[in-house]
Amino acid sequence: MAYRSIGLPDIGDPEENAKRQQEARARGEEFAKRSAVRSDLNSIHTVLVRYAKKHNNRLPATVEELGKLDFFEQRAFDKVKDGTFVIRWGLTLKAEVFAYETAAPEQGGYVLKANGEVVKMTAAELQAVLAKNSQTKNSETNKPADKKAAEE
């Protein structure tokens, strides 16, 4: 028994058919990419949160620290090592964004939020979040350790 490929129905105009098939292929490719990126970022989130819960709610400071973990999915770890994803090392669990695609700050892309949600952000949206978090991090590190130091 021969099976026929299920495609888009012909609407008569060959150019229009080709255009519709190309658009359908592009949507399929985007869906596949989104699924793979979400899977990888979800794996990264799981590892970062597990690590942080064992280390005073702090994310790992380096890729080497992350590599020591035995519960990391190899494919996602390889994508961190090869630069596909940027992890914001050393932050706390309170950070708004944990990781993102390398090109996201310039071109927009997928972002891993602290709550585990994977969203697509524009470059401007991500830059605003990173700037806000960087100011918060700087203000936290510049705070005096105790009241006595503040009085001095």
Keywords:
152 residues, alpha+beta, 4-stranded antiparallel beta sheet, 6 helices, 54% helix, 11% strand, disordered C terminus
**Major beta sheet, strand line-up:** 1-2-3-4
**Broad structural category:** alpha+beta
Amino- and carboxy-terminal Cα gap: 87 Å
Count of helix runs = 6
Tell me the major beta sheet.
4 strands, antiparallel
Which whole number gives the mean pLDDT? Answer: 80
The fraction of residues in strands falls at 5-15%
Give the overall shape, derived from the CA principal axes.
elongated
User: How many β strands by DSSP?
Assistant: 4
Helix proportion: 40-55%
Radius of gyration: 22 Å
Low-confidence stretches: 136-152
Number of domains as seen in the coordinates: 1
Order of helices and strands: HHHEEHEEHH
What does this structure look like?
The radius of gyration is 22 Å and the shape is elongated. Strand 3 (109-113) and strand 4 form a beta hairpin. The longest helix has 41 residues, at 14-54. The chain starts with 13 loop residues before the first helix and ends with a helix. The protein has a 4-stranded antiparallel sheet with strand order 1-2-3-4, with helices on both faces. Helix 1 crosses helix 3. The protein is built from 6 helices and 4 strands, in the order αααββαββαα. It has helices at residues 14-54, 63-67, 74-81, 104-107, 123-141, 147-151, and strands at residues 85-87, 97-101, 109-113, 118-121. By secondary structure, it is of the alpha+beta class. 54% of the residues lie in helices and 11% in strands. It has one domain.
